[in-house]
Amino acid sequence: MELGKMGADQFLNLALLFLAVIILFKFIFRKAKNLPPGPRALPVIGHLHLIKKPMHKTMTNFAEKYGDVIMLKFGVRNMVVVSSPKTAEECFTKNDIIFANRNETVSGKLLNYNCTTIGLSSYGDYWRNLRRIAALEILSQNRLALFTSIRQEEVHFIMKELYEECKDLPVKVILKSKLSDLSLNIMMRMIAGKRYCGKDVTTEEARQFLEVIQEMLEFHGIVNLEDFIPVFKFVDLKGLKKKMMVLMKKIDGLLQNLVDEHHKRRNGSSKIVDDLSSSRKKRTFIDIMLTSQESEPEFLTDQTIKAITLSLLAGGTETTASTLEWAMSLLLNNPEAIKKAQDEIEEYVGHDRLLDENDLPKLTYLNNIITETLRLYPPIPLLLPHKSVEDCTISGYNVPKGSMLMVNIWKIQRDPELWDEPDKFKPERFDGKSGDGYKYLPFGAGRRACPGSNLGKRVAALTLGSLLQCFEWDKIGKVVDMTEESGMTMPKLKPLEVMCRPRKVAVQAFSA
Asked: Which positions are annotated as binding heme (predicted)?
């Protein structure tokens, strides 16, 4: 028995010694390679066991302990996380081309036409063509100006719906559903030329679009082990891949219907009528792409058009609605800001008409509210991961080829060394400036920055200004719950419920 016990003790001691040697070897190897610091990793899984929700707060805790550049091991992949303006600038200037690529992921392949959407496609000729079409043909200043009336009409429609609900007495409103309907209608009218939802026109197709976009964003927020540990390629944990394939079939069917409708219209066999501006037809985004298809048929296939359309819908609906919900939540917790914004609108717009996009450049405080909301609650708190195509250095550390890069803009935009009272809602901090270099990155930076940022800010400012001009708002309870939902994006966990009653300008505009 004693010999047996001694043998077990010796085995344990040898095992501990072996483990200590491995840890020491890895430490020496990291130092020799001058890799960024990070917490201790486990064999095979690396640091995956340390990732807790919400991920941006986990990464913030790591940064506070190990520094502004850290390296984690996600299975077989290196993950570099940067959390300061200096390191972010280094990534998006000196190393911008090196980090211009994306990682191929299960969700990217199964939910984004094999990673061919604007946000997830690999850097190269194909991506440059996508970006050219988006930047010049669809989201340019001139093109957006042509669709100004669409955005204003949709905002006025949602204001009128709200007025009809609360004209007789204050009512409780769940704002997110209305903001989601508004965002979808604006995007769908620009993309396809027709309204999809609202009090009079809600369709099953509209509900399907909203549902599939929300579900797609949820899937992108799930850590899929197959992306980091290759052996899981042969195991469909929780049936995730099957669910994604079913979802993508729905998405593709909805998008193909849009493209087919436009093909038929161009061939003269049917006609799509813009319900709200039939007297003044505008070419839709799909029309624009189908015209380009005639000169670039090999590149701009129907699938490419669907991939671009999916990018526009995913980037321009739920993220805009969430930003507006966060903005209203912040304002309700800071009622003095509501009064200041309403006074500004009354000064520059008056009491006799509804504000429009031409008023927005004059409404400094209103724009500051949007800017401050995006600082506190960026749509994607950890920018979409980039991938290095060659070895490089960040802040003096060596970063190996193939490493994933994440930029923790949530930490950067709340860093007390960069911002005065960083967790406080202070729109006036942006007086005279729209952001401050790499301290403020809600839409990313460099080659892979969001091409739709200008559209998103226009819609958000016009909608928020109209809500404040037309209605008085009161929170339910002492304070609005500001808990975040975990995932790739950062919507509110609890939908905003608020009391709404019309102001004089809404009565004048909508009572006739």
From this structure: 450
